[in-house]
Each structure stands twice: as C-alpha cells, then as structure tokens.
Amino acid sequence: MLNVERLTVSYGESIVLKDIQLQVPDGAIVALIGRNGVGKTTLLKSIMGLLHIKEGKVILAGEDITTYSTDERARRGIGYVPQGRDIFPYLTVYENLVVGLDKRQSFMLEEVLNLFPMLKGLLSRMGGNLSGGQQQQLAIARALVREPRVLLFDEPTEGIQPSVVIEIERVIKSINKEKGVSVLLVEQYLDFALRIADYLYVMEKGQIVLQGETREIKSQSLKEYLVI
Description:
Layout: E1 2-11, E2 14-24, E3 29-33, H1 40-47, E4 55-60, E5 63-64, H2 70-76, E6 78-81, H3 93-98, H4 108-115, H5 117-120, H6 132-144, E7 150-154, H7 162-179, E8 182-186, H8 190-196, E9 199-204, E10 207-213, H9 219-226
Parallel strand pairs: 3-8, 3-9, 6-7, 7-8
Antiparallel strand pairs: 1-2, 1-4, 4-5, 9-10
C-alpha cells in the first residue's frame, strides 16, 4: 500500500534521513520505533509532503506521489495524526471534525463517533478544553472521517492515561481489521508497539538498523536501541 524508497531528507546541509527503505503492506500495522531525535517524525512529515525530499520516492498504491502537495496526498488516502494532536483549540469538537470535510464523506461522521462514543457528548465543547486523552481521540477521529487508506500515527500514547491507551489500541485494531486501513505507527511505548504491530522497523541516526515481523524480533534486541 505504502512504499518509501531510498528516501533522503535534509535540513539545510544536515542530512536527517538517509536512504530509508520502508513498506506498509495493504491491511498491515507497521511500527517504527527508536530513541527521540532519530528522525521518526521527520519520516512521517516527509511521507505527508510537509518536508522537502532530497532523494527517493514515496509510492502509494503503486502511484508515485513524491511531488504531490500535502492536501493532494490527503485526498489520495493518507491520513495523519501528528504528535501533540494539533487540534483547533478555539473550535468545538464538531467543528474540528467537519472542517474541510468533503460533503461526500459526511456520512462517515456518525460512523466515526460510534468508535469514540465519549466524543458524542462533547460535540459543543471547545477543543482546547478537552483532556489530553480526549484530544488524542478527537485527532484520530478527525483523520478517520476522511476515509484514509493509510493512517500515520505519531506517538499516539504520549502523555495519555492507561485507560485511554487501551481505547486507542482498540480503535486502531478495529479500523485495521474491519475497515482495512493500513497503519504506520511511530511509538516510544515498546509494549504497545509489540502488541499492535505486525511488523517493526527500528531507526537510529536517520537510518533503519533493524526490521522484521514482530513475533520474530526479540524484545531485548529492541530495548538496546531504545535505552538512552
């Protein structure tokens, strides 16, 4: 579904990602893990078209989208739940969900709210008045109403209480299995990544240093790349 081919990204003269090769197969959940500052968020932003790609390609469902704008990539089926949520604090929950929504996708609103029943009672509340866990659920719901084929998550469990982490895990598994949405998940919480992902990539200093099916990679090997 999503292929990143020999991707190199730099900030000025400083190379942040070098020769990245990564695949998210159709219907799979793939996790990308690594220490802070190794380039994981940069990779997601590059896939979304938020950063300039120096070399390499981004392929979605066989189509080269490397030169496409961010909004065109979204229309083609890439959804993005950024680190820190980035909801609109001065819009209501309802307004956050429908802003920029294509009328053809409006039927998805009720379906998505069924995944997050907590949000149904908060539709008139300002986004900035929600708890961190509620904001994270809103950010995921906002991405889902646009019916993505691939959904990128950047640290969805960061700063979230355990009960909400369980809810987020349930939703990700549900949209993957029932809707067939492919998922690329950047995550620091190793146990969460191991529970949810089919395949793992480990990044260090802007490069992929380890990869494999989740059930085949030893957790001790992974921890070596995560310990500061």
